[in-house]
Amino acid sequence: MLKIDAHSHAGEGAAKWSGQQVVDRMDTIGVDKTVIFPFTEGFFHNEDIPKYVAENPDRLIPFCSVNPWNFHTAADELEKCYKEGFKGLKLHPTLCGFRLSDHKLVDPLFEITQTYGGVIIVHGSADLYNCPLEFDRMARRFPKVPLLMAHCGFFWEWELAIELAMENDNLYLETSRVPGFETSKIIEKLGAEKVIWGTDGPFCDYEWEYKKIERYAKTEHDFDMIMGGNIANLLKL
């Protein structure tokens, strides 16, 4: 089974992190593929992502990022990216300052993603812009769009995140930055088929993010599904 990191930045922003650096770190623990997208603070663009993928086409999976407040260009940029081979979209409501369930700003991006069969991953910490209830609204509004909640509603809403992921077939929890105890409970209560491994590269301890799934997955099958099988199915790899 492929090992796939579903959450890594690349380019320049809060850090400077090239596609080759992503691949070099993957090789330290035997990861096969990684989803990459731009850093999403301040001004950002998607121009570097295809370049990185072209350098390592068998290792890197391109996702784009847009700021929905650029409503004159965000939808066009997203559609352009899908036509050029991007596989999904990363949104960061906290950094860009919008509610995930904002009809005017966000619905068009979900509609385009549904048309192209993409996957959406969203920063999912417990604040008003992207708390688990915001994910619940979007998952119900667009049940055909796979939606990944990065960080599982951490710190204080991870239990609600589990509950809502159980109620929405298209809502998945992504494990980067989540401590061990909460990770173990998420896997135990939600089941391996709804949990997806990510590392929030380059920020987190890469080996620990790997080891915590190895430690808390109940079976080899569960480990394989969390570490790559689930995201591979969503991306039709």
Number of helices: 10
Q: How many structural domains does the protein architecture include?
A: 1
Order of helices and strands: EEEHEHEHEHHEHEHEHEHH
Q: State the CATH superfamily name.
A: Metal-dependent hydrolases
Using the 3D structure, state the CATH architecture.
Answer: Alpha-Beta Barrel
Strand content: 15-25%
Question: How many β-strand runs?
Answer: 10
Helix content class: 40-55%
Overall 3D shape: globular
Largest sheet composition: 8 strands, parallel
Rg, alpha carbons: 16 Å
Terminal-residue CA separation: 11 Å
Q: What would the CATH topology be?
A: TIM Barrel
Name the descriptors:
TIM Barrel, eight-stranded parallel sheet, alpha/beta, 10 helices
Plain-language structure description:
By secondary structure, the chain is α/β, with parallel strands linked by helices. The protein has a single domain (4-234), classed as Metal-dependent hydrolases (TIM Barrel). The chain is built from 10 helices and 10 strands. The protein has helices spanning 19-29, 48-55, 74-83, 93-96, 103-116, 132-141, 158-167, 180-190, 206-216, 220-234, and strands at 4-9, 11-12, 16-17, 33-37, 60-65, 88-91, 119-123, 147-150, 171-174, 195-196. The strands form 2 sheets. The protein has an 8-stranded parallel beta sheet, with helices on both faces. Helix 3 (74-83) runs parallel beside helix 5, helix 6 (132-141) packs parallel to helix 7 (158-167) and helix 8 packs across helix 9. The longest helix is centred in the C-terminal third of the chain and has 15 residues, at 220-234. It is globular and about 45 Å long. The N and C termini lie close together (11 Å). The model has no long low-confidence stretch (mean pLDDT 96).
